[in-house]
Write a structure and sequence with these properties.
single chain, alpha+beta, Nuclear Transport Factor 2, Chain: A, five-stranded antiparallel beta sheet, 8 helices
């Protein structure tokens, strides 16, 4: 009798141990693929757009706020900004780097939001991804289609797998309608840095963002 109770207790403890192990397993242990992450984020944004009357009425500022809160936390801004600025990044002071990232983020948010603002009743699909399970950097290609718009909006992403506590996939480059932003801005920023230095580039970004805000 005692042996039977002992075995039952042992089995119960074993079951509890398995349950605790599952409950305490970090979320990244069952890490989702980069394409799954991008589709999930994209659909969250699109569903929010469909549910927001102000956005449907053409309020671009609401789209910008939505993109900023949903998409941008999943972007590696430091890498993206450094790659766009190019060699000039190494010349920048910590304060200049901070300003560059702030202004570049505003520019990216408006660019992304502008692409989404062009279509209504949107759906997003991901093209087949070519990547090995152990790849640390991948490209996810998507198309956003809208009712009444025969041509899809191309939105592609380059992502890196980040280690450590905040591990997961982070975006470090965007292709908006056939244009990779980092490569495009790199040539523009290089000219600004060469002509006016880092402070000149920051001032140029500030003015560009002000102009874009007025257009919106």
């Amino acid at each position: 009798m005692q042996r039977r109770v002992f075995h039952r207790l042992l089995a119960a403890c074993a079951g509890a141990a398995v349950f605790l192990a599952q409950a305490l397993t970090p979320a990244w242990a069952a890490e989702e693929g980069a394409d799954v992450m991008i589709l999930k984020l994209s659909n969250e944004v699109l569903d929010s757009i469909k549910a927001d009357p102000a956005i449907k009425a053409g309020d671009v500022s609401r789209i910008i706020a939505l993109v900023d809160s949903k998409i941008m936390p999943n972007v590696n801004f430091q890498r993206m900004t450094a790659s766009s600025v190019g060699p000039g990044w190494r010349q920048a002071s910590p304060e200049q780097k901070k300003r560059l990232q702030e202004e570049y983020k505003i520019l990216l948010v408006r660019t992304y939001a502008g692409a989404l603002a062009q279509v209504n009743d949107m759906t997003v699909t991901a093209k087949p991804m070519r990547a090995a399970p152990d790849d640390k950097e991948v490209v996810v290609r998507t198309e956003v289609r809208g009712k009444g718009n025969p041509e899809p909006i191309q939105l592609d992403y380059r992502l890196e797998k980040t280690p450590g506590e905040g591990r997961g996939w982070k975006i470090y480059n965007l292709n908006v309608m056939g244009v990779w932003l980092v490569e495009t801005y790199r040539s523009q920023f290089a000219q600004e840095v060469h002509a006016k230095g880092i402070d000149g580039l920051i001032a140029s970004l500030v003015e560009r963002n002000k102009a874009n805000a007025k257009k919106a």
